[in-house]
Amino acid sequence: MRDDRSFIELRARERARSLLDQGSFRELLDPFEGIMSPWLPQQGIVPQADDGMVVAKGTLNGQPAVVIAIEGTFQGGSMGEVSGAKMAAALELAAEDNRNGIPTQAVLCLETGGVRLQEANLGLAAIADIHAAIVDLRRYTPVIGIIAGTVGCFGGMSIAAALCSYLIVTREARLGLNGPQVIEQEAGIEEYDSRDRPFIWRMTGGEVRYQSGLADALVGDGINAVKTALDEAIALGVPAQHRSDNYAGYLARLTRFDTRQQAEAAQIKQLFAAEGKS
């Protein structure tokens, strides 16, 4: 059955439910468990009962799967101690399943600004655990990341996206190590104007990331389009070489980039043209 509702407009829980086979959705550590950040109330911030992280077990095309979705509307999808631990543990258990002969697939819905500043080192430690868990799991089964919008994927979680076996993006998606406001703060508005939305999307938007070969599929906003791309990524299996394993090739390209001039989308595409998409 086709479902052309906007994937971007769905909250994290609905995104996870829409990707899994109908009727198979089962949430782990749901809001009724009341496992939330102990640190946010101490700083006058109202916590959320699931800490902005949804972990759902179910099936994808009849095969065991876990979908982990970040709620971008809570604290900008930032990663704290609890939310990070939920994602890392889910990935670690999926890897354990695969070692025990249960071929569990993993999908990450990434809408996050990175580490939660209010939890600082705790969040950073959790993100490091997530990175290690992705690298472990992707040996057995593709780990597929989806960046749809509207938050984008930044900070340490952009590294998590880069570690995924395959990455699916929409044109509304954004992917970058540093967010626009951080770059503007550190380098000045002349270098990066965070209010210039067309410029930002030309630099970090889903389309340019796909054309540069840093994402594997560029899809429309409909749920059906996202699910089709997900099925195709799963069918490809574990890639012969992950992007992150080709660091030497990317470093060689970066050394050829002239940092004395303002970067433009055309330069980015040309820089990665050898491995980019046509």
UniProtKB/TrEMBL annotation:
The keyword Transmembrane helix applies. The chain crosses the membrane at residues 143-169. Keywords: Membrane, Transferase, Transmembrane, Transmembrane helix. GO terms for molecular function: acetyl-CoA carboxylase activity; carboxy-lyase activity; transferase activity. It holds the Pfam family Carboxyl_trans. Residues 1-242 form the CoA carboxyltransferase N-terminal domain. This is Biotin-independent malonate decarboxylase subunit beta. It comes from Chimaeribacter californicus.
